[in-house]
Design a protein that fits this description.
169 residues; Aminopeptidase; seven-stranded mixed β-sheet; 7 strands
């Protein structure tokens, strides 16, 4: 059974494997190439965000095995809007792990942050992630053109959303 547990230092080896994964790098905000110490610094930013309530990170685990990350990189409590994201390890892809993790993360977000709007920003080229969003009940709103800058390249992102009343259906 897939579960989410608050990200902690014991998960850093798994985070490092994600940081080294070319597919994860392609479709996330992980810099290309990742600088030395990126996993630890990234973990530190989420620890700081956990303390001040502006972000949260969970390890996706199954039977004690690290399968990926379920993230709330932006929690805006005043606007009641939260951005979510997910990264699944290569060995866990194609098994429904990301969909289940996103469902659990969505439930946590609605329960713990009081969000009225949840957003996903997905690369227009990330077909698998778009399927995950759809299966988890999110709706495509449109394309944000040239919105994402990575290593000097601009990319388009789709914005998907779920509103709190829709989650109750």
């Amino acid at each position: 059974m897939v579960e989410l547990e608050p990200l902690n230092e014991s998960h850093l080896p798994g985070v490092q494997r994600l940081v080294d994964d070319p597919v994860a790098i392609q479709f996330t905000r992980i810099p290309e190439p990742p600088p030395p110490g990126f996993a630890e610094a990234w973990f530190g930013r989420y620890e700081d965000g956990r303390r001040d309530g502006t972000r949260e990170a969970f390890a996706i685990v199954e039977d004690g095995a690290f399968l990926g990350l379920a993230l709330a990189p932006t929690i805006d409590r005043e606007a009641a809007t939260v951005e979510l994201g997910y990264i699944v390890a290569e060995e866990a892809r194609g098994r429904g792990v990301a969909t289940e993790a996103l469902r659990q993360l969505t439930e946590w977000t609605l329960r713990e942050t009081g969000a009225k709007r949840i957003e996903l920003l997905i690369s227009v080229d990330n077909v698998a992630s778009k399927k995950v969003a759809e299966r988890a009940g999110y709706e495509l709103e449109g394309v944000l053109r040239s919105t994402y800058l990575k290593q000097g390249r601009r990319e388009d992102s789709e914005i998907w959303s779920l509103l709190a009343p829709e989650a109750e259906r």
